[in-house]
């Protein structure tokens, strides 16, 4: 009798994998476009570091936009043949996805955990990340592991290294600051400074160009009005029909979001909701960046788990199912898009087309209202029953 539940769980896993395999080809669109740009950065670093930010691919207009340390990390991808490189990127993203869910939900039966990982490949940010060959899942896993699992003496180092690859993890320095994790903040700062110094040692002129010119050029990232840009800036561009950006309104929203977001992070951390605090901090970077593409929004996984765990029984499962179903259906792609059609959206179109912003604000507000009592001793999750 003891083996019967285990057999059923493996049947559940098999059914989920078959369903994902049937659906995923219809939403897998980008065939490693961003990984090709990463490889371009790695190749330029090997051939001529001065061309890292000027080199272009024949069929992809996007240039390499990460720091020089990020280009160094991409060197192995550049050296491998394309099929191997893309396959390795997918494999690493799937491992990172497994780590993210493991950190979020804790101990559970391996079959159910794997089923959840497989099903989450249908979430818009996840499938876009894997399809593009992006590194968002990897960076999310690194940050979560550093904050939630690494001991206090070494905490922060991985965050600093992640920020050296792509600058957005710098926002987690704010989390360490407001939660008064001084040793971790020092570690993160030292690790990040080391990555910057390495860039100057390797290619001083190119590094100077990056920090004084490239970093400030948001036009290198893509069209601000496109519906995939789920940030305050993207919303303002679409809502005000100003393609130059949100201007002073954006700066005001950024300042308010940083202040309110870090306050929420501290409050959640003090109340023992560490997973929610890290997820909210991740949202700050998404809201405040000039461009936050939909594939950057992998932080909806820890946010969704933190949200669902505030409830009990069937309500918890209903909240989790609703949250993740919305990000699988991805309403941001429903209104007309591309060719600046977003500038003509109606209010109803904005409700759907900017929905990642509205859903996240609602989730954070709910977290703040429901996490009233510290629960430091509570175990990570209970979204999936243990065997």
From TrEMBL:
- Could you list this entry's UniProt keywords, alphabetically sorted: Cell membrane, Membrane, Transferase, Transmembrane, Transmembrane helix
Provide the membrane topology annotation.
Answer: Multi-pass membrane protein
Q: Where in the cell is it found?
A: Cell membrane
Q: Does the entry feature the keyword Transferase, yes or no?
A: yes
Q: Does the keyword Signal apply?
A: no
Pfam families found in the cross-reference section: GT87 (PF09594)
InterPro entries on file: GT87
Looking at the UniProt entry, the stretches that span the membrane are 9-29, 64-82, 94-123, 129-148, 157-178, 184-203, 248-269, 275-294, 315-335, 347-369
Question: Which domain of life does the protein's organism represent?
Answer: Bacteria
Please give the family membership noted in the entry.
Answer: Belongs to the glycosyltransferase 87 family.
| Protein name (database record) | Glycosyltransferase 87 family protein
Q: Which organism is it from?
A: Kribbella deserti
* Organism lineage: Bacteria, Bacillati, Actinomycetota, Actinomycetes, Propionibacteriales
